[in-house]
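## Example pair
The file below holds two records. Each record gives the amino-acid sequence first, followed by its structure token line.
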Amino acid sequence: MDFFNQRFAFLLPAILAGVVCHSAIAQESGIDPATLPGLVQDDTKGTVSGTWTKSVHTKPFLGEHYLYAAGGEKQTVTFSLDVKEAGVYQVLLSYTPGPNRTEKAAVLVHAADGVKTVVVNQMKKPEGPYCFQPLGEFKFEAGKAVVVVSAEGNMKGVVIADGVQLLTAEQFKIAQAEVPKKPPKLLPALAKNNPPVKTPVPAKPKEGTKKEEPPQQQPVKFVRKAPAKQFSKLSSAQLDDLLEQNIGGIKNSQPISDEAYLRRITLDLVGRQPKLPEMDAFLADERADKRALIVEKLLASPEFGVNWANYWSDVISYRTPQPELTFLSYTTFKRWLAERFNQNAGWDETAYTMLTAVGKVGDNPAATFVGFHQGDKSRLAAETTRVFLSTQIACAECHDHKFVDMPQETFHHVAAFFVRVNTKLPWNDSDAIIVSSKADGEHKMPGGKSEMQPIAFSERKVDLGKSDVDRRTELADWIIAPENPWFARAMTNRIWARMMGRGFSEPVDEIGELGDRVLPEVHTAVAEHFVAGNFDMKDVFRLVASSKAYQRTLRDPDSTNKDERKPFAVIAAGRLRGDEVFESLAIGIELPNVTPSPTPATDAVRFPPPPKSTRDLVSDAFGFDPSSDASNVSRTMQQAMLLMNNEQIQKQIDASPGSGTMLARVVESEADDAKAVTRLYENVLARKPNAEEIELAKKHIGKVGERKAAYEDLLWSLVNGAEFLSRR
């Protein structure tokens, strides 16, 4: 194909879509602002506030590129032009049109008689010369003429900011008459390689020619929809009444001690045991409502977000395979999630943002969920329903489900929501993974001929031909809707499982027919409380933590007493996650987090794995999938060997003078063994020892004969005991 036909083949899709501006200019580079009449400023000279993305996808445009943004606070581009003479000028806005643009781009013109707002439909091609849309005549004084393109209130589509032009009435008249007759002059540096093209003759694109990627559509900004029916909130007393009706023994149960409550609630909310000053202050507090007050303090702590970001990162990462060319790092994602949780953003908004996200993971961490699954439609179908709805459909990918009424088509209708997701994986930098959209494509079942319509469990149907972002937005809207019972129940089931020893349904990521379900009436009431509170996670924690049911003493869940075998008649002890074990070691024995130097790349190993810190080693050994049934989480040889042999841990179990350890300070400062033993118990187990434990410790010290060695034995036994590694 000759040069002429190649260029036209490139432009043909845009011409047919009606998005090429006047004269159907065929250009690869931007129009040179210096060659245009009047006062002109393109986006490279504007003042940008917020997050705007550069693009050259749609032509023609002004300067080196144009900017686009979906919307949000402080999302503006300000153009300031030097007006030499006061007078009336025609203001023109440059933008590239397209089907994913907004219909309501706000342009604020700061004229002599005040600020005036012009709304521009950027889906339509501009009516002025080249890619300029006339906004009207405005009076300006001599000095700065300010025009602001704003995406702050934008709700749908993207806002384009490319440039602004001011023309006198005479200049505008000439431009309207003369400019369409001649091509624009391109930027000097690029014009040589991209000469203007005369009126082209249509030609079919050569078979196999790669199509230009369309401008990337941005997600619609989240807006919470009002529920169709009224949902009721619960008080902790009402929750206790419900449990009393179903299992009994709640109202007359004995609450746990202040020590035990503080450790339990601190672990549940911020993922660590309490520090000694916190313990002393809480035990000394004589206020009747001190338990409610400590709950509020922990919920307000930045550690709350960090802890539950770790939890949700594990929920996703334990089922996400590592790609071949990079190592998936969840650090950026955890920081984003922690901020969301600490800001108390609704879980519906967070889930919506994760499911609809586009862009680079490092710039938009919400894209982690889709990006780390590499845009794989099958994995995304299975994990989206499992993570956000606690409903597993993966078994229906290859055949009808064997145990429930779920035909194979159910899975593939959900997969069709993700068929147009596109991801770009870099080498060895997961923050550089980019989530974008394919221009077309439909999903078919293996061996099937018909295209599968995106359908979510027969509840939400999307027409074939819809864009990637439109499909994911429709799915996300349905998932987070107040009327969708699975979404609220999925989250409340996970919170309840952590705080009460088991979920209303086990495992926690299966609340359907295959789950071991108990107390459905209570589950429904807690889920409706969650919806009524606009999906406020903290409010669910507050509800449970203040109940008598939560504040009971742990008992053996395998008791032969039939009353104690009822669901939630007892609260079973649970295992600490890997990150919780590290945090408790950091507090209990002041374990430092040491990271070795990176391993250099070699010809044999081009991408050496990142070095593992002390935190990483502890998390690897003690970590487990939070969605697993508690009965499947067990002690391992790896855990035992790490506690016994890890270099950093062993350094902290050293009572030698000059070692600088917590143990050395206790042994040196406390000559009274009873007091020294008490200090160790408080540091490591967040409780005081009883008289029997003090006596056993003193006997061991006397038997060993060497005080330093005896205290090292004692600290080692406390760290390696089941109590330290358990939530009780």
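Second record, same layout:
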Amino acid sequence: MSRFIAFIVVAVLSTAAYAEEFSVVEATIPEMQAAMEEGRVTSRDLVTAYLVRLGLYENTINAAISVSAKALDIADALDRERATGKVRGPLHGIPIAIKDNIHTTDIPTTAGTLALDGFVPPYDATLVRNLREGGAVIIAKTVLTEMANWMVLGMANNYSAVGGYAFNPYDTRRDPRSGLNDGRGVLPTGSSSSGAGTAASFWAANIGTETTTSIIGPASAAMLAAVKPTVGRISRWGVIPVTYDQDTAGPMTRTVTDAAILLGVLEGATPDPNDAETKRCAPPSDNDYTKYLKVDALKGARIGMPRAWFIDPYTLPGSDAPSGGVPADQKAMMDEVVAILRAAGATVIDPADIPSAMAETWEDNVLVRGSCSRKPSFRGDDAECSVVLKYGFKRDFTDWVATLGASAPVKSLTELREWNTANANLGTLKYAQRSLDVSDEQDLNSVVDRQRYDADRANDVRLAGAEGADAILQRHDLDALIFAGSRGSSFLAKAGYPSVNVPFGMVANGDGFPEGFIPKPAPMGVSFSGTACSEPRLLALAYAFEQATMRRRPPEF
């Protein structure tokens, strides 16, 4: 708790005056804005209250990898602006946390890896600049799985060499099961981003990043609303990459309204000259996504629910047995979701199975060729996997290092791997670094390697897009597809398609626990997914569903 003591001292001295008037626990961004407009609370008060909660509960959850030493000063400056009549927008004075692979020039950016410990980048990420210009107070960096989970498949979610193990606030105990009792939490955190601090009201909201499942997964696991945007809608400049083919940042919040507010600020009004892909989708007028939030948006909507593999087991090409599917309680949850949607006036096509997920040939099935990190698959053993992530990581990590100039803590992927090996006694290789290894063997100057990447990338996009999500959306004239939590995320990520998660249910947390240990239930959300640039419609549907259900509950810890 030592890193929070200074904050607690200040906070306790200044909390009494407003503590009975306004609570930050579960407070929404509009509620905080209204309280500041009415003079019932200041930005300094909000930051102080969140720092108190961090001081009280952080040792239990470990949601922050670092905390801003300037947050109170920034809040004071924003309060002075408000006093003169200047309000920058809906985030003015609102404390926000961001994932620790996103550049900030006033807080270290480490990606959880020891080679970057203490590293302060020479420039802010574009999304950080947008947040600052919008009046947000960046209060902390959130924990993450080291290198956004591109160290090794099987690393515990939200573990890093810098931050250690972090926990899901809905069950903060350690896993007692053999083979999993290495210090990790018993309740999974969802993927490389963390929603723990937002769920526990350590800040108003946080920004995660996703390559395959790491916004929707953690949001589902922490009973949060979230938007995984179309790749390119939010600039990736200044975000340590896995691969920019699939990487995106996105908001993780307690309500759909808060997520819509943040999405508009993160996107910015104009394309980023440092990221050409930001021309892919046009922002709404005034960057205001809240205008799409209508309580009756489900009336007349057409929604499809893929079942084959995504809910019900399905035998994939080359296999003799079914795979996929979900447990009975998750299936029952989705049946309830369908009933709620229909009662709200939506037409639900059930099943609405993904054509490329049911393709009978190995070459045309989107589910059979995973990333070459799964085995892991080194050169010569990668014919049956996609090289997109391993090739893209080396390419984009190399380009990212080049933007740092003389400040770069390592000059190449090879140097990072060698540093980790040389400093293994510090804990750099607790789970090894095989994902880095399979990436580093890629030759960016090789025509053969580039051709293989190009072919796999085109195949991924075709099977996830035109012959996957787009095919079923068009066949049934659908507005969206629905999935249990992040069940559809890896598939949709290949085409860079968006999803919006809504908090909904509680399901069983696995099995195999020792006698006497009773696991607490796991949160699970419902995600609404669509084609590129469909966030306005997805947010509308998600908001209407949220308002019809209101299932979010804060954690007790």
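Notes on the second record: The domain at 2-292 is CATH 3.90.1300.10 (Amidase signature (AS) enzymes). Residues 1-19 have pLDDT under 50 and may be disordered.
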